[in-house]
């Protein structure tokens, strides 16, 4: 079970810092367990105890939590409720919450929609249109990833968009680059979720809710702007999109 922390201290290396907004540093932390093996009651108790242990380390202007692997809106609601017992009601300390607890419209779809906006920005840079491309949306779990790990030499795609967290094997990444395949790194491509978590935090701080259309519009604007900033930096430093030397 993993939560993201948007804090004031950087736990990321320079690679990560270059490819996501510097407004708030991102870190990750969690509990070594498989939520699927727990009952709802067990998961709730675990989440609440976890919150008790970290409540004095998080806050609306220090560390703000966001959902990640093994967590969802319900998990965030438990954390908020437990945090409230210690330091009072403060919706901005948690993002990815249910709408009725101060969550943001569009948050549940934000990661996938961000991938679309990132893909559109990349294709436009190469004079391509998303409407004219063929796509293979591919996902591998632990079993599938091992079954396909040797297939990289057969990849015919011109572009690979990393919607998951660092999906390629490092050697596969190198092979793709040598073949001229353009790889759009995960740290940018799947940043839609954490970006809208930032929007949720802003809404909570300001005390009002944006319409879903505004959330999506702002997300598109941020993703496109970030892509152009990354491209400019790649040009300046003669690197590939991941930051490696070209």
TrEMBL record:
<dbReference type="GO" id="GO:0004352">
    <property type="term" value="F:glutamate dehydrogenase (NAD+) activity"/>
</dbReference>
<dbReference type="InterPro" id="IPR006097">
    <property type="entry name" value="Glu/Leu/Phe/Val/Trp_DH_dimer"/>
</dbReference>
<comment type="similarity">
    <text>Belongs to the Glu/Leu/Phe/Val dehydrogenases family.</text>
</comment>
<dbReference type="InterPro" id="IPR006096">
    <property type="entry name" value="Glu/Leu/Phe/Val/Trp_DH_C"/>
</dbReference>
<feature type="domain" description="Glutamate/phenylalanine/leucine/valine/L-tryptophan dehydrogenase C-terminal">
    <location>
        <begin position="104"/>
        <end position="243"/>
    </location>
</feature>
<feature type="region of interest" description="Disordered">
    <location>
        <begin position="1"/>
        <end position="30"/>
    </location>
</feature>
<dbReference type="Pfam" id="PF02812">
    <property type="entry name" value="ELFV_dehydrog_N"/>
</dbReference>
<protein>
    <recommendedName>
        <fullName>glutamate dehydrogenase [NAD(P)(+)]</fullName>
        <ecNumber>1.4.1.3</ecNumber>
    </recommendedName>
</protein>
<dbReference type="InterPro" id="IPR006095">
    <property type="entry name" value="Glu/Leu/Phe/Val/Trp_DH"/>
</dbReference>
<dbReference type="InterPro" id="IPR046346">
    <property type="entry name" value="Aminoacid_DH-like_N_sf"/>
</dbReference>
<dbReference type="Pfam" id="PF00208">
    <property type="entry name" value="ELFV_dehydrog"/>
</dbReference>
<dbReference type="GO" id="GO:0006538">
    <property type="term" value="P:L-glutamate catabolic process"/>
</dbReference>
<keyword id="KW-0560">Oxidoreductase</keyword>
<dbReference type="GO" id="GO:0005739">
    <property type="term" value="C:mitochondrion"/>
</dbReference>
<dbReference type="InterPro" id="IPR036291">
    <property type="entry name" value="NAD(P)-bd_dom_sf"/>
</dbReference>
